[in-house]
């Protein structure tokens, strides 16, 4: 399963890196971090610099099955203001592929109308569109998984694993994640 995690300046550090880490621990995903600018080094909301695996202009979106949008107000504003990012979201959802978003990022999907008629969650105050906001950690629908906030990053990552590979794949990562014997 191939996915991209989009990084825009101001992305929420934990939401991006925890999700990335959890998916990589499953050994079931080819997940690339992708900078939406011409600079591979992207600074998070906590001033952590992350070097992306690729630049947006270097990837072929048709090679990927899903995209992940981390939150962070400034990061989400930068994602929302990128015509290329909006084009990618439309491409994925209009072609039966998946988009997963956490914290403020579901507001992008709501603004584009993709949450209409669906249940979703997000950071309170970032509700947009005509979907049904649910004040819970993670909401799963057939092509969109939404996460509430940074504190639910691990649950968000586990939901993505579960979505593609089932509960056994989630259970397999728990010993390393939770320090279980």
List the helices and strands and how they pair.
Elements (H helix, E strand, L loop, with lengths): L1 E6 L5 H13 L4 E6 L5 E3 L5 E3 L2 E2 L10 E4 L3 H8 L2 H12 L3 E5 L3 H6 L7 E2 L11 E2 L4 E3 L3 E4 L5 H13 L1 H12 L3
Parallel strand pairs: 1-2, 1-6, 2-5, 6-7, 7-11, 8-9
Antiparallel strand pairs: 3-4, 10-11
Quick structural gist:
This protein is an alpha/beta fold and 181 residues long. It has six helices and eleven strands. Strand 1, helix 1 and strand 2 (30-35) form a beta-alpha-beta unit.
Radius of gyration, in angstroms, nearest whole number? 15 Å
Walk across the major sheet and give the strand order.
5-2-1-6-7-11-10
Low-confidence stretches: none
CATH homolog superfamily: Class I glutamine amidotransferase (GATase) domain
Helical percentage: 25-40%
End-to-end Cα distance, whole Å, is 29 Å
Structural class: alpha/beta
CATH topology: Rossmann fold
| CATH architecture descriptor | 3-Layer(aba) Sandwich
Helical region count? 6
Number of domains: 1
Task: Count the E strands.
Answer: 11
Mean pLDDT: 97
Report the top-level CATH class: Alpha Beta
Strand fraction equals 15-25%
What is the H/E string?
A: EHEEEEEHHEHEEEEHH
Largest sheet: 7 strands, mixed
Task: Give your account of this protein's structure.
By secondary structure, the protein is an alpha/beta fold. The chain has a single domain, classed as 3-Layer(aba) Sandwich (Rossmann fold). It has helices at 13-25, 73-80, 83-94, 106-111, 153-165, 167-178; strands spanning 2-7, 30-35, 41-43, 49-51, 54-55, 66-69, 98-102, 119-120, 132-133, 138-140, 144-147. The strands form three sheets. Strands 5-2-1-6-7-11-10 form a seven-stranded mixed beta sheet, sandwiched between helices. A two-stranded antiparallel ribbon has the order 3-4. Strands 8-9 form a two-stranded parallel sheet.
